[in-house]
Recover the amino acids of this structure.
């Protein structure tokens, strides 16, 4: 499947790769607890982008994608509070990346709502 015209897919894929990279540096406990949650959420967002792209019921999928992004923002904040990140930069970059994906998902939802009216 081609995703050349879907910037959110590239953003979600880059985010997954980034999360995999930083979770490797987590401490042993964090890596297998909250790190696993981060990895699972990031992959779920990537899969939701795909599902929204191919679905006939885009509104439901896009709302679910947007909600998952919001949940992941909270999880990233929790990681910061638990000092799981090796540096503030990791928190900053991951936060910016998920905010960007959340904005793209909301824009996609808004566009879909305008088109289907």
């Amino acid at each position: 499947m081609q995703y050349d015209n879907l910037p959110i897919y590239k953003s979600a894929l880059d985010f997954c790769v980034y999360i995999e990279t930083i979770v490797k540096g987590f401490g042993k406990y964090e890596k297998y607890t909250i790190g696993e949650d981060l990895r699972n959420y990031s992959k779920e967002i990537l899969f939701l982008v795909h599902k929204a792209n191919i679905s006939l019921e885009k509104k439901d999928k896009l709302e679910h994608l947007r909600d998952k992004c919001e949940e992941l923002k909270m999880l990233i904040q929790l990681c910061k509070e638990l000092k799981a990140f090796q540096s503030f930069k990791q928190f900053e970059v991951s936060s910016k990346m998920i905010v960007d994906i959340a904005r793209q998902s909301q824009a996609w939802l808004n566009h879909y709502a305008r088109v289907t009216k």
Q: What stands out?
A: The chain is about 80% helix and 0% strand. The radius of gyration is 15 Å. The helical segments are 7-23, 28-32, 34-54, 58-81, 88-116. The first helix runs from residue 7 to 23.
